[in-house]
Amino acid sequence: MSFTTMMDRPLLISDLFEHGRRLYPQSRVITVGEGGDRIATYAEVASRTEQLAKALMKLGVKQQDRVGTFCWNSQEHLEAYFAISSMGAVMHTLNIRLFPEQLAFVINHAEDKVIIVDDTLAPLLGQVAAEMETVEHIILVGRGDDAPLRAAPKATLHRYEDLLADESPGIEWPVLDERAPASMAYTSGTTGDPKGVVYSHRSTVLHSYGITSGAVTGLNENDTVLTIVPMFHANCWGLPYAGWWVGTDFLQPTRFLQPEPLVEMIERHKPTFAGAVPSIWTGVLNYGEGKDIDLSSFRLVICGGSAVPKSLMQAFEERYGVTILQLWGMTETSPLGAIASVPPGVAGEESWTYRVRTGRPVAGVELRIVDEAGAALPWDGESVGEIEARGPWVTGSYYGVDAPEKFHDGWLRTGDVGFIDPRGYVQITDRSKDVIKSGGEWISSVELENELIAHPEVAEAAVVGVPDDKWDERPLACVVRKAGSRVGPTELRAYLEDKVAHWWLPERWTFIEEIPKTSVGKFDKKVLRGQHAAGKLEVIQS
User: Is-catalytic flag, 18?
Assistant: First the structure.
């Protein structure tokens, strides 16, 4: 027996859930819809969660069976979050933005037994219904048409509310092994098939401790959390678990993620906290130009998924008094890995040195950089290598797939390239597959993009490496101009002159209507490189 006097209690999502319902029964879940907002208390949501769990058991769902969710951010999706995992099954959040062939692949690969789907998404799921090999039941949320789902070869169709109506509240959650699977999500599949990451009860609870800590978000019952980041993406960055645990109100926007309805619901409900990718906040910023909009209820916004331009953060502070902090993570890291908070004693212009960094590792996560031979590099702010991660909520493998190239000596290879400064702040300069090496020197596409996006006439910008006879590779700047702008290479190159090294300056430019994006909203540079190779981009030499 080990020499300790501590109780040995498992870390379980059911306990996290019960803590929230008992201590904060009057906290609210607000779901935005076309017919108006629906408001339910934690007590009401908790009762419905129990009813859902009992309904799933009646359908034959057992421990470790996979239950897929194909839903917007809503009250019902939150109920599924807690019901599925607390009963010992595995919640599989299905990404609504996957290509049909990818969606069919992940459903079959995970062997989903049940899928819960919003009626407005039924046509989208219906595209792959005939290919779903293991799905025995489909549960439709809402009263919309279920016809698109009838092609599923083995599935019986049910209505969510009908199933709940047949059950009474009250359940005794099973005592599970804290290392048992609780949920799973698949990567976006930008290179090959999506890969499954399976989160345990233990990792999820520990991740919730990390999120709610004062060093990260400091969430508490005085907060209203606007869950813009999709609940299908890395468990909504863990916010449903963390927020429920500490009694926050939830503002669930469903499918109303365009700038105008987002601003309207922010002004109406006064959320204090939100998380989303940069493109969402860029859209809000552009929508607000020339308008008197009020975002002052926010005490903190976290932003991740891709590098957050300094210009975006500055604009939100200057116009609306809103602080945006950059957060880094991946599906593989649950996703919380690092946050770019400012160290003590730093203020004013100096604070931007740290605000624009990718972030400093949060407690519970270790990060390091390694060279091509796998040797650890110093934290000197200059040595560049691949970033590796490890920790109790970092995956050590993928579900049902051998991928030894993604792991090294007990560390996850993130695929990100960058450096770490002496204070522990990480700066990602590129994805390993996106790095530009020109004449033996590295060019950071991320830094070039951030500087270009800061130009007042640029809406979006992505930079990729393209072949060059003299330098091996040179940067190609792919620019989306703001409406009405005719800005060209000469002006943009001059704009960059005093902001980046001279040899970084692009000679090749293309102006396009939209930057292609992955299923989670990141720039899809693979597509841009392919378009360039196929001669589909009109390239201007400067």
Answer: no
